[in-house]
Design the sequence.
């Protein structure tokens, strides 16, 4: 039977295991974030803001289509797979793997077809040049390599965060190398797009290979021959509901920000889209650790809440405090030294993005804290309520963005992000706090799915 803990982590408490796994991922993500900043810095140094914006629009278009067909299957596998491993139900665990793998492959194939065929239509709506549309179609082919949701979940369930750390750096290293090669040969938007596409696809394929290798190591043999999605309601009655919740949650989290970049290109031109993407990329110093914290905390919070573990609340508060202090430091640095750093690093043309960057860092700090609370809320089976909260905040973000950006320019997206983040954080804080206060002390919590 597969073991849910790697050998070196098996004797650690949930709190220490989470801290150790987060440390591994954070170290890898820190290196990866530095490499990504170097890459976009080289692109900004080589290209004008308008040309950088063209690359941004191409990448964002592919990410939007990816989001429409992204079911976050790693979270689905953890939500249903961890209890099966705890109960030593190997047969049901394999069946769950078959279902999520099949969804992975089908969704990526459909996403690729949609992205390539819809590029021309979307380009006309957004006022793209024909050349930009053709490059978007070319870049969209990498969506075929995104079928790693289930395999990423496999690595998380079996605590193979060492492999996740390596995967975090493969794509950024290759993107940086590709950018340098193009700069040395013949810098052009087209060649940069090709290099970035190849590097991203290679990083995705490494994730897929790592996941399958871990399944073999755990002696979990999975065959998709004869697989069907028709039986999932009977075998996993809550699966469809949870997949729907996670799907919409993922889109509520990601699509508004991606769509806002496309809208910024419409309202402010490619240069405006480039500035917004640049500011978003810099805020990943905070947002990426938040995603890593979710990956580390969620499996253990599910176990702790189900067992009624006494240190659930302590673990939650400590993670929130770390997020708040980290975000405050980066926000203050941006306020007092952001313009200078952007001028030195990227050039004077990019310093005008400083006020936007400061506002986005403040919003990201609140989102980082909300990520921790959301992991707790999912463990408490409040996924449906949290989805509603994020849906409301996303709609508020887009409405504020559309109203303020044409009036205020680059400041508009920053104000919209802060407004949305405040609403989400306060609402989820109240929801999780109520559940902790109402939970019977010392008793195992019943995990019942709330109605969507």
Sequence:
């Amino acid at each position: 039977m597969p073991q849910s803990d790697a050998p070196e982590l098996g004797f650690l408490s949930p709190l220490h295991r989470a801290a150790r796994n987060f440390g591994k991922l954070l170290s890898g993500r820190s290196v990866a974030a530095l490499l990504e900043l170097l890459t976009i810095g080289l692109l900004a140094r080589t290209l004008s803001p308008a040309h950088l914006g063209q690359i941004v629009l191409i990448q964002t278009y592919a990410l939007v289509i990816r989001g429409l067909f992204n079911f976050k299957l790693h979270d689905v596998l953890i939500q249903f797979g961890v209890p099966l491993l705890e109960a030593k139900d190997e047969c049901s665990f394999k069946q769950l793997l078959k279902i999520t793998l099949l969804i992975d492959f089908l969704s990526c194939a459909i996403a690729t077809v949609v992205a390539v065929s819809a590029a021309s239509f979307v380009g006309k709506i957004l006022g793209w040049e024909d050349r930009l549309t053709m490059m978007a179609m070319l870049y969209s082919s990498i969506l075929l390599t995104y079928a790693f949701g289930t395999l990423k979940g496999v690595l998380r369930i079996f605590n193979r965060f060492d492999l996740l750390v390596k995967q975090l750096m493969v794509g950024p290293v290759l993107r940086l190398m590709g950018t340098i090669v193009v700069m040395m040969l013949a810098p052009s938007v087209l060649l940069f797009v090709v290099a970035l596409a190849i590097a991203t696809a290679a990083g995705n394929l490494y994730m897929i290979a790592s996941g399958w290798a871990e399944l073999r190591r755990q002696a979990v043999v999975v065959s998709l021959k004869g697989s069907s999605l028709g039986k999932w309601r009977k075998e996993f009655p809550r699966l469809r509901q949870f997949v729907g919740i996670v799907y919409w949650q993922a889109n509520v989290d990601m699509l508004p920000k991606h769509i806002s970049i496309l809208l910024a290109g419409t309202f402010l031109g490619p240069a405006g889209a480039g500035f917004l993407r640049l500011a978003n990329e810099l805020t990943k110093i905070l947002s990426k650790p938040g995603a890593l914290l979710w990956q580390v905390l969620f499996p253990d919070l599910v176990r702790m809440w189900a067992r009624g573990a006494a240190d659930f609340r302590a673990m939650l508060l400590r993670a929130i405090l770390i997020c708040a202090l980290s975000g405050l430091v980066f926000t203050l640095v941006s306020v007092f030294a952001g313009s200078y750093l952007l001028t030195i690093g990227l050039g004077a043309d990019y310093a005008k993005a400083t006020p936007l960057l400061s506002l986005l860092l403040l919003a990201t700090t609140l989102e980082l804290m909300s990520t921790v609370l959301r992991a707790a809320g999912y463990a408490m089976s409040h996924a449906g309520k949290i989805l509603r909260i994020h849906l409301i905040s996303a709609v508020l973000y887009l409405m504020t963005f559309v109203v303020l950006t044409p009036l205020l320019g680059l400041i508009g997206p920053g104000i919209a992000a802060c407004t949305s983040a405040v609403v989400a954080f306060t609402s989820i804080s109240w929801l999780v706090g109520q559940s902790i206060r109402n939970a019977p002390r010392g008793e195992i919590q019943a995990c019942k799915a709330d109605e969507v």
Observations:
- Residues 7-438 form one domain.
- DSSP finds 14 helices and no strands in the chain.
- The radius of gyration is 22 Å.
- Residues 4-11, 442-452 have pLDDT under 50 and may be disordered.
